[in-house]
Design a protein that fits this description.
heterodimer; A: 871 residues; mainly beta; Immunoglobulin-like; Maltoporin, Chain A; 3 domains; 22-stranded antiparallel beta barrel; 8 helices; disordered N terminus; B: alpha+beta; 2 domains; four-stranded antiparallel sheet; 18 strands; 18% helix
């Protein structure tokens, strides 16, 4: 036995040239204990002996300068259960025997982790003490329970200088807030070289979780230089972008309406502008973004495929900051600062497009040449974010948030004057659609172990389309209309939301989140109201669509349990109740995922999630139209559900580098789309008569290598996907591939910090093309229509895959003393990708037409520039 | 360096930028033709059925025949001559249709066969009447079978016509008198309440045309193109978004959704109408001239077919679908194979006498 024990010892002898006269200096944050120990021994010049495996999987943080060897080792092995003995020139490590001790008295330290200066909450900061750790939540709140006595808290956050309390005596529950300085990262070498996403991959039990901060979003090169959180997410594996240039998101073979987009935990319905060209999230207003695509926290439900929570800036409690951005397509302004220094802050961000700056003079020029008709065309979008936060005390704060986003399009035409016959006419189209969110919340530290957040919110989605047309005649000054018609289409959702969310640190290794919410929905699915009038008759026809009222109750409980050093478990259950017009539906969504550290730097994860969706969007095309209406399930319809299993393997040889390979399989039921030939039904027919209800599956693999800091960072991602759909009322009941069944997708993203002034960003995307439906057979025109057209025979849906898509985008950022320039090249090598196929006729040399299919290749190289002035 | 940029780099960049947005290609999708059956059945007329087969879009050989000036009556390359077509009336077998064909000698060039005139169709002896439920079943050894059903709609009459005349003019030459005018017409009809009805409106006229060559006056009947843009019913299938971004003109079909069981005036404007009559013999010729307001009661298959043509070509979703940005709008068919339309229509005409109009103005 002794031999075995001896053999099991690894004995190393290091003949140090000399012991450092000034003592031991070590600065390490969350580094492997073995490496730190070697460093100390190297400095001490002593020999060392310790049992094999003693320091495996242990990470320590030490910050000492010119101290004795024993002080350094004391600090390093504090509360680790490892002891040491220094005898002569030898140091021996051993595992301390656990002594039967009287029950330790423990107290809890809690508080908030914030960014110094701005006071913004830092989400995911790690607070460590004596081998225990806690992570700050969305509000920056942390809670850690420790044995009473001398202790020392250290906080680490990627990109920020480590902050420590120094050793203090803990005798009772205590509140400690941390302010972390991002600028300190530049000056202090004790920078945390880690990343939130590395932590999510290696430490958490979540599969497919991602965190993005404003910097990452802003540095992603995109079309027109309009940084966009959704376009940043499009570079992630498992996320299909949809049509080129658009801010679409199709996660793991899901539909566009299966993603829950939240602004400070409040759902948004309309999430893009200008047909989907830009998302509704103004980067200037964003603090960070949480995104889940594979396993989902029990807190979230209501969509099948993904959950994205955008956290907006709180505003600085100390000083005013602002920025003005001028880009090619829009301008943005943001400002934040204290209203009452140290207590109340505000944050305001406004973005508006410039398109009408182009359309108005274009119309003016046209009208100056047109004698008869005068046109007026306008197109614009606006985003407005505002937030006020007030801190009553260390335990209590309130906030209020407003978001308003709207698109509008108007086309107006009128006769400049009555024509020679005495007739006049005009028409006007007025289209508006968008969101309004108003919310107020109260955060309260109920106890050092229990954090609560109470929110009340009102959210309104609105799509209002109006067309009016009048023809008449004029005699003298009297106008007499001949006919008048009006079409009004409205789609509204009004939600009142009340919710409470709690974060309970049951134990250092066990956190429980629970909460409940109530939502009062008022849906007005597209209601068409038409007026036809003449001198002798006036008919008003409104379709039979009525407003629906629904009550939705959600409750959840979830836990994050560190079962051992190697095993972590997330579990949860989400219950939902949806009562619409007397039809009650219930959903139970169990969630479970685990992480197992199979070896140092290796993690294996697996999980299962069920999601339930009661509200969905009927989408007519691959671009976003204001007629894509949001509707609830009604009558005998069942809620959409998805069951998803996911598993992954993760490897991180160092905190800066993470390899991940995730697989998933998803089964979707009761999903809805427009049925075949829905377009033949009148526009005012109830939407429920136009729908097909079916099922779908998606399966695939996501692979990613990410390097998240350093002068060169970025990622390489590959995803493999199969996604299909099957509806009894579509495609003759046959299964067909999903539209964005992009079988292979590769993304490369590189950020290069060239020097203090210049950054360069490169992204390359290559993927199997989208699927489209390509009619192949024609039939002869029976001559019933007003003129001759090609008669198209129905064919299988999504029967053709567009050619392989690839594109490279370049972005350069030049920092100046007052702000920064951004130069970007979309599609830098001008590979005009195929976005669709046109059936057309070519003219031969013999002046004969012959039919052909033509690839439509749309976007060439698009340069853009913007300047952001920071004050 | 500048010279290098001017000589090589700029032309290269420009050539990239002006690269064609459209590239011909062969998608390589195999598809099989199916039987296509079409017929427009009108009350009181014998039934004629066109039997053809579908063809691949890129099949130039067939397209040369069928596309530039397609005629359902004679397209040799797609005709199905070996078909058997059976007619069932109110679910009872009535008869098997006979093949009728006629090809004129009007053949200029064998390379241009579509210039041939003629017809090949299957004809029934049965004369349909309103309310008949007709089913046609067709078989072909090569292209399989097809069937379709249609109900011959009931006649709906225009009972009253009101009109106002503007821009009235008369001009006299040595041999002719010319009357010119614009007509604003309100054509009243009552929709039967007991059924779902579909309509189509057309105008035609009968009058005289002045031949400048020999200064003669010739009697003609012709379709008169009316300005139907004022009538809101003709755009009832158009959504607010399509009004803003799509094309709405050119269609004069409607359903009774907004006017079910009610009397309603259709508003039509006929502009720049001109009538020529012989100066010395005004009365008789003037009396023969008329404007015919034709209200067709049409079957739902007719309505759906034409609406699908509008949706495919002029609606927003169809326009997006035609380039792959949405599911394409397929041409609506009530035939089991998805190809062809068996439609029915019953026409009712109201003749607006030219003589009355001119007398009113004098």
């Amino acid at each position: 036995m002794k031999k075995k024990l001896l053999l099991s010892f690894s004995i190393a002898v290091f003949c140090g040239a000399h012991a450092i006269a000034g003592g031991i200096t070590v600065r390490a944050v969350n580094r492997p204990a073995e490496k730190v120990f070697m460093d100390i021994m190297k400095q001490s010049g002593k020999n060392y002996v310790y049992p094999a495996g003693l320091l495996d999987n242990m990470k320590v943080s030490v910050n000492v300068s010119s101290v004795s060897l024993s002080d350094a080792l004391d600090k390093m092995f504090y509360q680790t259960g490892i002891g040491y003995k220094i005898k002569g020139n030898n140091v021996t490590l051993f595992r301390e025997l656990k002594k039967e001790r009287p029950l330790e008295k423990r107290s809890t330290v809690s508080g908030f982790v914030k960014e110094a200066g701005s006071g913004e909450a830092l989400v995911g900061a790690v607070v460590k003490a004596g081998g225990r750790a806690a992570v700050s939540n969305v509000m920056g709140f942390y809670s850690i329970t420790l044995p009473e006595g001398e202790t020392c808290l250290e906080v680490t956050y990627p990109g920020f200088a480590c902050v420590s309390t120094g050793i203090f005596k803990l005798t009772a529950n205590k509140t400690v807030d941390f302010s972390m300085d991002p600028d300190g990262a530049v000056l202090d070498e004790l920078v945390v070289h880690g990343s939130r996403n590395n932590s999510l991959a290696m430490e958490s039990a979540s599969v497919g979780a991602l965190n993005l901060n404003k910097g990452v979003i802003a540095s992603t090169p995109v079309i027109f230089g309009e940084s966009d959180v959704i376009k940043t997410l499009q570079l992630e594996p498992g996320v299909s972008a949809g049509v080129e240039g658009m801010a679409g998101m199709y996660v793991h073979g899901g539909n566009a309406d299966e993603n829950l987009y939240m602004l400070d935990n409040i759902p948004l319905y309309q999430v893009n502008h200008v047909g989907g060209l830009f998302s509704a999230f103004n980067t200037e207003a964003i603090r960070n973004v949480d995104f889940h695509k594979s396993t989902f926290p029990a807190k979230y439900d209501g969509r099948l495929s993904s959950f994205m929570d955008v956290h907006t800036k709180d505003g600085s409690l100390e000083e005013h900051h602002g920025s003005v951005k001028l880009g090619l397509t829009s301008g943005a302004f943001s400002i934040d600062g204290p209203i009452w220094k140290g207590h109340t802050s505000y944050s305001v961000a406004l973005r508006r497009s410039w398109f009408d700056v182009l359309t108005l003079p274009a119309c003016a020029i046209f009208n100056s040449f047109s004698k008869d008709e005068k046109y007026s065309v306008g197109l614009a979008f606006t985003d407005f974010n505002a937030k006020v936060k007030h801190r009553f005390s260390e335990r209590s704060s309130i906030h209020a948030m407003l978001y308003f986003g709207e698109d509008y399009l108007y086309v107006k035409q009128s006769s400049s004057s009555v024509d020679s016959d005495g007739y006049y006419d005009f028409f006007k189209n007025d289209l508006k659609w968008g969101n309004l969110v108003v919310s107020a919340g109260w955060n309260y530290v109920v106890s050092p172990k229990l954090f609560g957040e109470f929110t009340a919110a009102y959210t309104r989605y609105m799509s209002k389309l109006k067309h009016a047309e009048e023809d008449g005649e004029q005699e003298g000054g009297d106008k007499k209309f001949f006919t008048y018609s009006e079409v009004n289409s409205d789609n509204n959702i009004n939600d009142w939301i009340f919710k409470g969310d709690f974060d309970w640190r049951v134990h250092d290794c066990h956190t429980v989140n629970f909460g409940a919410s109530y939502t009062r929905h008022s849906f007005l699915p597209f209601r068409d109201r038409r007026v036809i009038a003449s001198e002798s008759i006036r008919e008003t026809m409104a379709d039979k669509v009525t407003a629906y009222h629904a009550d939705e109750v959600n409750a959840y409980v979830s836990g994050d349990w560190q079962l051992s050093d190697k095993m972590r478990l997330d579990y949860g259950l989400h219950y939902s109740f949806f009562n619409i017009e007397g039809n009650a539906h219930q959903g139970l969504s169990p969630r479970m995922s685990f992480r197992w550290n199979v070896a140092d730097g290796w993690a294996v994860k697996g999980g299962y999630s069920r999601t339930v969706q009661y509200v969905h969007q009927l989408i007519q095309s691959s671009i976003s139209l204001p007629t894509d209406q949001w509707i609830p399930i009604i009558g005998s319809q069942k809620p959409q559900t998805a069951d998803k299993i996911a598993a992954g393997v993760y490897y991180s040889p160092m905190t800066s580098l993470t390899f991940s390979l995730e697989g998933y399989w998803k089964w979707m039921d009761n999903i809805m789309e427009y049925a075949d030939e829905y377009y033949l039904l009148p526009p005012d027919i109830a939407w429920s008569e136009k729908m097909a209800i079916g099922k779908g599956t998606a399966k695939g693999l996501d692979f990613k290598v990410a390097k998240e800091f350093g002068n060169i960072s970025g990622h390489i991602a590959y995803s493999l996907l199969w996604a299909d759909r099957q509806y009894p009322d579509k495609n003759h009941g046959k299964k067909f591939p999903a539209r964005f069944d992009n079988r292979h997708k590769i993304n490369v993203m590189v950020n290069w910090k060239i020097n203090d002034k210049w950054d360069m960003n490169v992204s390359w995307t290559g993927m199997s093309g989208n699927r489209i439906t390509l009619p192949t057979q024609c039939w002869v025109d029976p001559g019933l229509g007003p003129w001759h057209y090609d008669m198209i025979l129905a064919t299988d849906i999504n029967n053709f895959r567009l050619p392989f898509y690839h594109r490279m985008d370049l972005g350069f950022t030049r920092r100046t003393s007052r702000g920064y320039w951004n130069f970007s090249l979309y599609n830098a090598y001008c590979n005009m990708n195929t976005i669709g196929v046109l059936r057309d006729n070519n003219l031969s040399d013999n002046w004969e037409f012959y039919p052909v299919f033509k690839k439509i290749r749309l976007l060439p190289i698009i340069p853009s520039v913007s300047y952001t002035w920071i004050f | 360096m500048r010279r290098f940029i001017r000589k090589y780099i700029l032309p290269l960049l420009l050539s990239i930028l002006v690269t064609s947005c459209f590239t011909d290609f062969d998608p390589g999708i195999q598809s099989d033709p199916v039987l296509c059956m079409s017929s427009l059945i009108t009350e009181g007329d014998s039934i004629k059925v066109s039997l053809t087969h579908t063809w691949a879009w890129t099949d130039s050989k067939i397209i040369e025949v069928a596309s530039p000036h397609p005629s359902s009556e004679y397209n040799p390359a797609i005709l199905v001559r070996d078909g058997v077509v059976r007619l069932y009336v109110n679910d009872e077998y009535e008869e098997t249709l006979r093949l009728e064909s006629y090809v004129s000698d009007y053949l200029w060039n064998a390379d241009y066969p579509w210039i041939m005139t003629g017809y090949v169709y299957y004809q029934a002896d049965y004369i349909p009447k309103s309310g008949d439920r007709l089913r046609l079943e067709a078989e072909s050894a090569e292209y399989g079978s097809a069937s379709a059903e249609v109900i011959v709609p009931e006649k709906v009459e225009i009972d009253t016509v009101e009109y106002t005349v503007s821009n009235y003019s008369e001009s006299v030459t040595t041999s002719t008198m010319t009357y010119g005018m614009n007509l604003n017409i309100s054509a009243w009809f009552e929709d039967p309440s007991e059924s779902v009805n579909y309509y189509m409106f057309k105008t035609s006229s009968s009058g005289y045309v002045y031949e400048s060559d020999d200064e003669s006056i010739r009697s003609v009947e012709s379709v008169t193109f009316a300005d139907v843009s004022e009538e809101p019913l003709f755009t009832e299938h158009v959504s607010a978004l399509d009004h803003a971004l799509g094309e709405t003109s050119g269609y004069s079909l409607f359903s009774d959704r907004q006017i079910s069981g009610k009397r309603y005036p259709l508003h039509i404007r006929l502009e720049d109408l001109e009538y020529y009559i012989r100066n010395q013999d005004t009365g008789p010729e003037l009396g023969k001239g008329y404007v015919s307001l034709d209200l067709y009661s049409i079957s739902s298959s007719y309505y759906r077919h034409v609406i699908s043509i509008w949706a495919a070509n002029d609606g927003i979703v169809g326009s997006l679908g035609s380039i792959g940005l949405a599911d394409p709008v397929f041409t609506a068919s009530n035939v089991s194979t998805g190809a062809g339309v068996v439609a029915a229509a019953t026409k009712c005409s109201y003749r607006l006498s030219l003589e009355e109009i001119i007398n009113d103005m004098q």
